[in-house]
Specification:
Length: 112
């Protein structure tokens, strides 16, 4: 999902809310929403995705992408990390999502 970056971002919809709209307008369609760690707090995304799953018969998938467009992060006022660090952040992000979805009580200490 591009917010400010290249190839017509101004004409693109935000992927999670657009996916929700598609899911609620259909009965069998499965959709994938791309999200960037660093642009989403994992606890907010976890709750939003769980709510979407509960109301759409589990038809939402998330594509966690590490990000590649430095200028977009800069324009959004977000920290830019080198390649390895972006992948480490994505890994932690996924661990937090899984923990929030899978454990009754969950805490996490990570670098990000």
């Amino acid at each position: 999902m591009r917010y400010l970056a290249s190839y017509g971002a101004d004409a693109q919809q935000e992927s999670v809310s657009f996916s929700q709209a598609l899911l609620h307008a259909t009965e069998r369609l499965k959709v994938i929403a791309a999200v960037h760690p660093g642009q989403w707090p994992p606890h907010i995304l976890a709750k939003l995705a769980a709510t979407t799953q509960a109301t759409t018969n589990n038809r939402l998938a998330l594509n966690i992408v590490s990000g590649w467009f430095k200028q977009e992060y800069a324009q959004l006022g977000l920290a830019w990390l080198d390649h390895e660090e972006r992948y480490r952040r994505a890994e932690e992000f996924i661990e937090v999502l899984r923990g929030l979805w899978g454990e009754e009580e969950f805490t996490y200490r990570g670098d990000f």
